[in-house]
Specification:
It catalyses: 2-deoxy-alpha-D-ribose 1-phosphate = 2-deoxy-D-ribose 5-phosphate; alpha-D-ribose 1-phosphate = D-ribose 5-phosphate. With 397 residues, the chain is of the alpha/beta class. Helices cover 31% and strands 19% of the residues.
Length: 397
């Protein structure tokens, strides 16, 4: 048995690191998706993630990740979580983790955005909209980026998720102006006619289509949470809450006392290390987005695996720095299988890895029926009452 009440909980979301198709994957045309499985296959047995391995990353799977064997005695507890929210976007996944499942499907735009939205964007910005279709961000920027630089147009695009993305070259449309346009776009899709999960500013730099790169100045303008989340309940109870990465964007700042913007996964881990060095009682919630934005959507399993191995190395430092009254919980918000068709997120179960140095043994947490079990456990630890969604597993570890 471990300590039953921890002073600090560190939750890390490996954005898009799914572990096999969810039971309802057919509804999303995602049967056969398996982010971790296909990354392992791409590495032909050479994927090296020893810290995740000893936490049980392969033990939670029916079939181990190629090259990452199951081990007899994982140091912590392991399992999987499945989503009950209507969508498979980051917002859905994180909100559900914090006790607020998205029950009604948000609007998606497989044929591009309707004329009335586009016309209002053009009138407000004084700029023409180009693109306006579902597309990979890197692809549409490579195709239309040079035109955008010459004309000052706005590249508008979407995906299979409920997102409206606006891309512009940073030297052509300053960040302040791009953010202002995105803030206006947010007002157009808050319902009731159209309800969109996220407006994403996608600035890029580079001299030409062969050298364009999207920058870390991305900003997500998320739908305001439609109810209280576990973060709100924790904050109201005086529990210190920290958001690292796009956590602040996803929750529109609600329920977060201290926030950090990430430039990259490694920058995010620098922030984790920094926060671990602080003396506080509370919950630090981290999102590492590079797996998703840099490799999942771009269907790059080799890059995805490199990002996993880089994270695993930094995870070693986290494990060394954890105190006996700290709890670490690692999971994901959805899948984004780089070995699958298309470029969209994939409906998958996600890993759940739980560890504290005070644990004397490990074991399985099984398959959790909702991501909300994650947040329910945090609430239980700090003796805070939430909205009753999810079943905590504090007594199981």
């Amino acid at each position: 048995m471990s300590i039953k009440n921890y002073k600090r909980i560190f939750g890390i979301v490996m954005d898009s690191v799914g572990t096999g198709a969810a039971p309802d994957a057919a509804k999303f045309d995602d049967i056969g998706s398996d982010t971790l499985g296909h990354v392992g296959e791409a590495y032909k047995g050479k994927l090296q993630i020893p810290n995740l391995q000893k936490l049980g990353i392969s033990n939670l799977r029916e079939t181990p990740i190629e090259g990452v064997a199951k081990i007899d005695h994982p140091i912590g507890y392991y399992g999987k979580m499945q989503e009950i929210s209507a969508g498979k976007d980051s917002m859905d996944g994180h909100w559900e983790m914090m006790g607020l499942p998205v029950e009604k499907p948000l609007n998606t735009f497989p044929n591009g955005f309707p004329d009335d939205i586009i016309e209002k964007l053009e009138d407000f910005s004084g700029r023409k909209v180009i693109g306006n279709r579902p597309e990979s961000g890197t692809k549409i920027i490579a195709e239309l980026g040079e035109q955008q630089m010459k004309t000052g147009d706005l590249i508008v695009y979407t995906s299979g998720d409920s997102v409206l993305q606006i891309a512009a070259h940073e030297t052509v449309i300053p960040l302040k102006e791009l953010y202002r346009i995105c803030e206006y776009a947010r007002t157009l899709v808050n319902g009731p006619e159209y309800t969109v999960g996220r407006i994403i500013a996608r600035p890029y730099v580079g001299p030409d289509k062969d050298h364009f790169t999207r920058t870390a100045n991305r900003h997500d303008f998320t739908l305001e949470p439609i109810g209280k989340t576990d973060l709100d309940y924790l904050q109201a109870a005086g529990v210190h809450t920290v958001g690292i990465g796009k956590i602040n964007d996803i929750f529109s700042g609600h329920g977060i006392d201290e926030g950090y913007h990430n430039e990259s996964n490694m920058d995010g881990m620098d922030h984790v290390d920094h926060v671990m060095g602080e003396d506080f009682t509370g919950f630090a919630f981290t999102n590492l987005v590079d797996f998703d934005a840099m490799y999942g959507h771009r269907r790059n399993p080799i890059g995805f695996g490199e990002a996993l191995m880089d994270f695993d190395k930094r995870l070693g430092t986290v494990l060394k720095n954890l105190k006996d009254d700290d709890l670490l919980m690692i999971t994901a918000d959805h899948g984004n299988d780089p070995g699958f068709k298309g470029t969209d997120h994939t409906r998958e179960r996600v890993p759940l890895l739980v560890y504290s140095p005070s644990m004397t043994n490990g074991g399985t947490l099984g398959v959790r029926k909702t991501f909300a079990d994650f947040g329910a456990t945090v609430l239980d630890n700090f003796n805070v009452t939430g909205n009753g969604v999810g079943t905590g597993f504090l007594e199981e570890i």
